[in-house]
Amino acid sequence: MIDNNLSNAIKYSNESSKINVYLKSDDSFTIFIIEDFGCGIKDVDTIWQRYTRQNQSQGGFGLGLNIVMKICNKNDILYDVKSTPKKGSIFTYKIPLYEEKLLDNI
């Protein structure tokens, strides 16, 4: 998840562009956020589908975010993206916190 989002943020941003990474938590979740100020995404509804690429010249197979979505779904991780073309994107992942007693049984 982290690798894919950081790679995409770098790939779709200008060389001198800033990328912000936030990690915080509340009572229920660890919240991971990546914010870039790159080219943005025109159609955020399709980016989770296989073989979707925003820019054909950037390379890649368009599988990364589909794999991220499957990891999120399998692990009850909530995910969201907000994006504005030519301004950038914010990807948010809310990872559930598990009680310590549950982890002891693993």
Automatic annotation (TrEMBL):
SMART domains linked: HATPase_c
A cellular-component GO term for this protein: plasma membrane
Enzyme Commission (EC) number: 2.7.13.3
GO biological process: cellular response to phosphate starvation
Name of the top EC class for this enzyme: transferase
Catalyzed chemical reaction(s): ATP + protein L-histidine = ADP + protein N-phospho-L-histidine
GO molecular function, one term: phosphorelay sensor kinase activity
Classification lineage: Bacteria, Pseudomonadati, Campylobacterota, Epsilonproteobacteria, Campylobacterales
PANTHER family xref list: PHOSPHATE REGULON SENSOR PROTEIN PHOR
Histidine kinase domain ranges (all copies): 1-99
Protein name: histidine kinase
Keyword Disulfide bond recorded: no
Pfam families named in the record: HATPase_c
Keywords: ATP-binding, Kinase, Nucleotide-binding, Phosphoprotein, Transferase, Two-component regulatory system
